[in-house]
Design brief:
single chain; 3-stranded antiparallel sheet; 5 helices; 29% helix; 17% strand; globular
Length: 160
């Protein structure tokens, strides 16, 4: 197993473990709009690289109103544990069109074959069908957070 595969697998495990951090705050203000992303003009709050595209970007809104943007969902996942309290809202870029998806409703596919800015291999999809098509193509599986379950139980449900 290559070191890149190990790092990607650790990031995916972190994504699955991040459920309580996402769930505790997500959805509490459903009227909050996702931030405007300016690719090529903004840097990632975690790795400080330029955010080059929205397809793999992520963003969060803290309870104090601060917004952090990330060039890769993997950067978001490494950043979440550093927050003093759970994020108010979290968005992930739709890998199909770059539009924001609420993290609670995103369908996630992880593969080393997905070339993301920081090599997390994480791609988000708005629909299960899109995610399943990509997962089938890459011979991997689909993960999704179960938003209601996460809020009640503080866990991230895997699978479909």
């Amino acid at each position: 197993m290559s070191s890149r595969t190990i790092v990607a697998a650790k990031r995916f495990a972190l994504f699955l473990a991040a459920g309580p951090l996402l769930a505790a705050g997500c959805g509490s203000d459903s009227t909050m709009s996702p931030p405007k992303l300016r690719p090529g003009e903004e840097t990632c709050a975690h790795c400080l690289m330029i955010i080059s595209e929205g397809r793999f970007a992520a963003a969060l809104a803290a309870r104090d109103g601060r917004v952090a943007k990330f060039d890769d969902t993997g950067c978001l996942l490494e950043y979440l544990p550093t927050l003093p309290e759970p994020a108010e809202r979290v968005w992930i870029g739709n890998s199909v069109n770059g539009e924001w998806i609420d993290a609670e409703s995103a369908w996630i596919v992880r593969s080393d074959a997905i070339a993301t800015p920081m090599a997390s291999g994480l791609a988000a999809f708005a629909t299960r069908e899109e995610a399943e098509r990509k997962a089938k193509e890459l011979k991997t599986d689909v993960r999704r957070s179960d938003a209601p379950s996460r809020r009640r139980h503080g866990t991230l449900a895997a699978g479909g």
